[in-house]
Specification:
alpha+beta; 19 helices; 29 strands; globular; binds ligand MTE; binds hypoxanthine; binds dioxothiomolybdenum(VI) ion
């Protein structure tokens, strides 16, 4: 990758493949995460006492042994909270400490502050809680049957799906289970609360949403937002898991800090983090589809049952996004989507890269694959015949006209560069001669809507200071979680002021610098914070231009910023010289910037409008091999073509595409969450929960950014959001595995495969598929005899 990558814009700094601003700190261990902040004298450590029932009434709580344990300074329950016992981000249904009823195994009931973290954790285990068990609801189908929901059922419709399906030449119905996923950020949840004078509080929180934590902490303490400052320099990963749920840990740290007058650190270990916090929603998707002989979908209905857990959290928007993405790249003329937001006695599921979109997309991709196998067509042909058009068949089921559709172009290019058709034929040939090992291939596309679907969240602020030596400090409302937001925004500012990137010091997120910022989420971090920072830099630049024009008696058009210099008429000053002169002339060298995404609007009552500013596109071809005797499997080759518009930083964007894809593969293959009959998560550590590792990267991995691409909308330097969309490229691996299973029966019947496609599932799907193929063959033979 170099600065001249064809997908990048050709600015000096914006568009350059610069390393992550903290890369040298990450690799040397010098990057400061919250647990690395030098602790203040007397810092206490917190631990959470959690419920050991999925659903029960609390009969009594005896915490005397906890209080008497060595090192314990304070034990806190709900009654000790001065403000509100709630950290719910949308609806007040997330108690910090459970009171009369516990609603999931692992729910916070009380907290301990002790001198060391070991003392706090040991003490928290000594509680005696007496429960009276209540019947738990653990799965989404159980919740649907019981009518147990966290939010009302929603429906999106266009045309008449039922009648289109009824008259269609072909019809298929089925059910697909799609597993959840733990975010598995390398840095677990953590907060460090420092009480300050006059009832104010500073909280360092590992959060994608400092403003939300500020709000939650203020509520819990019973103070106002002006009295709480939340900072986050960086997270060791968030992946959505730190969008709403850091509040629990921050509130506990702040409450204990307020009560003891000491700084309190609340850091959960991996097992507790996995048990206490929400994951990607697992879905059970029922489909009913009618289609013609070419595989064109005439009508389709989906019933999406998303397991939300015990509370609403962000489940409303997440399940909405699943509905919005149930079309993926396909024009669905007659469609009916019903979405159940299932309330279960499990952890409250939350944001995870894609935010419901991946689950919605899996439904339609599975349906397309089923149609192709039913008609004995190449699934890619069925995909193509259903693609949205560019001038017609280009309105989504929520009435947004797609103005930037480039999926046909991306797929055509990828198909050619990856040699799809030839390889598909060669794989089929190879499979004929390989009785045990079977190969599979699939090409799947992605179209992902960019913007928060809640329109008001699409706003951002920034703060830029220029100092007398001509250097710049940059702050904005976004947070850094490894995705490279900070360097990209710094590149925008450096480009705007025509400075070297080294002239810009990036500073951590801080609610006292930029107020009311949205979560860094929905992949929109760079889009919105980049524009806000650009606006701030431009404000100062305009002041400098006006000043220079007046001072040197030239027209303002004759003041031109060039690399580290400013040409004013005939003469050239260094940027530093100009800044100095401006300072002496008392010109303000600090500015805020603000941005709100234009054009978007959307009526949640009717689910219509333009929720998304634009769409991000990509496609992947994956080839896999499976061992039909064991279900073991691996990727052999993956080719990706992804559209990032004009890349602000091709190195960062490539990292996002590669990482997102691999994370998507983990979701659909090895990452399996298991709960026992009592509702306890049994996969709460890397010993039992398998995320992909470096050795799982396919041996041949060809990732390219779409060249000569430009965002048709006016985004920052015409770039496109990249954070979440590539995750859904992982869907190609799932379908390649399905193809490999089908190979074992000569492609005569379609395998039933749920996600994640673990080795066990692949093995069982193979057995089940062979049985069905044998039955089908017997039936055909019997029919042949009769005939
Ligand atoms: N990349 C890294 N390395 N770490 C993360 O936690 N989160 C993802 C994505 N890429 C994440 C990541 C998610 S869920 C989102 S929404 C976006 O980054 C958020 O950042 P952006 O809006 O700046 O792209
Ligand atoms: N995406 C991600 N996070 C969000 C959204 C969204 O659409 N809405 C609220 N939080
Ligand atoms: Mo990402 S799931 O929008 O934090």
């Amino acid at each position: 990758m170099n600065a001249m990558h064809p997908s990048a814009l050709h600015g000096a700094v914006a568009g350059a493949a610069l390393p992550h601003d903290s890369a040298h700190l990450h690799v040397s261990g010098a990057a400061t995460y919250i647990d690395d902040i030098a602790e203040l004298r007397g810092t206490l450590h917190a631990a959470i006492g959690t419920s050991e029932r999925a659903h029960a009434r609390i009969v009594s709580i005896d915490l005397s042994a906890v209080r008497a344990a060595p090192g314990v300074v304070l034990v806190m329950v709900a009654a000790d909270i001065p403000g509100k016992n709630d950290y719910g981000p949308v609806i007040a249904d997330d108690p910090i400490f459970a009171t009369d009823v516990v609603q999931y195994y692992g729910q916070s009931v009380f907290a301990v502050a002790a001198h060391t973290v070991e003392q706090a954790r040991r003490a928290a285990k000594l509680a005696r809680i007496e429960y009276e068990d209540l019947p738990p609801i653990l799965t989404a189908p159980e919740a649907v049957a019981a009518g147990s929901f966290v939010l009302p059922t929603e429906r999106m419709q266009r045309g008449n799906a039922a009648s289109a399906i009824a008259v269609a030449p072909h019809r298929l119905r089925g059910r697909l289970a799609i597993g959840g996923q733990d975010q598995f950020y390398l840095e677990g949840h953590i907060a460090y609360a420092i009480p300050r004078e006059d009832n104010t509080m500073l909280v360092h929180s590992s959060t994608q949403h400092p403003g939300e934590v500020q709000h939650q902490v203020a509520h819990a303490l019973g103070v106002t937002q002006k009295d709480v400052v939340v900072e986050c320099r960086r997270m060791g990963g968030g992946f959505g898991g730190k969008e709403s749920q850091p509040g629990l840990f921050a509130c506990i740290a702040a409450l204990l800090a307020r009560a003891t007058g000491k700084a309190v650190k609340m850091r959960v270990d991996r097992d507790d983090d996995m048990t206490i916090t929400g994951k990607r929603h697992d879905f059970v998707t029922d489909y009913d589809v009618g289609f013609d002989a070419q595989g064109r979908i005439l009508g389709v209905s989906f019933v999406l049952a998303g397991r939300c857990g015990y509370s609403a959290d962000l489940s409303g928007s997440i399940n909405d996004r699943a509905m919005f993405h149930s079309d993926n790249c396909y024009y669905l003329e007659n469609v009916d989507i019903v979405s159940y937001r299932c309330k279960t006695n499990t952890v409250s599921n939350t944001a995870f890269r894609g935010f419901g979109g991946p689950q919605g997309m899996m439904g339609i991709e599975y349906v397309i694959d089923e149609i192709a196998r039913h008609l004995d067509l190449d699934p890619l042909a069925v995909r193509k015949i259903n693609f949205y058009g560019t001038t017609e068949r280009n309105v989504t089921h929520y009435q947004q006209t797609i103005e930037d559709n480039c999926i046909a172009e991306i797929v055509a290019e990828l198909e050619a560069t990856a040699g799809y058709a030839k390889r598909r034929a060669a794989i089929r040939e190879w499979n004929r001669k390989s009785p045990i090992l079977k190969r599979g291939i699939a090409l799947t596309p992605v179209k992902f809507g960019i913007s928060f679907t809640a329109t008001h969240l699409n706003q951002a602020g920034a703060l830029v200071h220029i100092y007398k030596d001509g250097t710049v400090q940059l702050n904005h409302g976004g947070t850094e979680m490894g995705q490279g937001l900070f360097i990209k925004v710094a590149q925008v500012v450096a480009e705007e002021l025509q400075l070297d990137i080294d002239a810009v010091r990036i500073t951590g997120s801080d609610t006292s610098k930029v107020p009311n910022a949205s979560a860094t989420a929905a992949s929109s971090g760079t889009d919105i914070n980049g524009k806000a920072a650009q606006a701030a830099a431009r404000t100062i630049k305009e002041r400098l231009i006006a000043f220079a024009a007046e001072r040197f008696g030239v027209d303002s058009t004759q003041v031109v910023f060039q690399r580290n210099q400013v040409r004013v008429g005939e003469q050239t000053l260094s940027f530093k010289e100009l800044v100095n002169l401006a300072f002496i002339a008392r010109i303000s060298l600090s500015a805020t910037g603000f941005y709100k995404t234009p054009k978007i609007h959307y009526d949640r009552k009717t689910f219509t409008g333009r929720p998304f500013f634009y769409f991000a596109y990509g496609a992947a071809v994956s080839e896999v091999v499976i061992d039909t005797l064991t279900g073991e499997n691996r990727m052999l080759r993956v080719d990706i073509l992804h559209d990032v518009g004009k890349s602000l930083n091709p190195a960062i964007d490539m990292g996002q595409v590669e990482g997102g894809f691999i994370q998507g593969v983990g979701w659909l293959t090895t990452e399996e969450l298991c709960w026992n009959a009592k509702g306890r998560l049994t996969t709460h550590a890397p010993s039992t929960y398998k995320i992909p590792v470096a050795s799982d990267v396919p041996p041949e991995f060809n990732v390219r950014l779409l060249e000569r691409s430009i965002n048709v909308e006016d985004t920052v330097y015409r770039s496109k959001a990249v954070g979440e969309p590539p995750l859904m490229l992982g869907i190609s691996v799932f379908h390649a595995l399905k193809d490999a299973i089908a190979a074992a029966v000569g492609y005569t019947v379609s395998p039933r495969l749920d996600a994640p496609a673990t080795a066990e599932r692949i093995l069982h799907a193979g057995v089940e598929t062979r049985e069905r193929a044998a039955t089908a063959a017997q039936t055909t033979a019997a029919a042949g005899v009769v005939a």
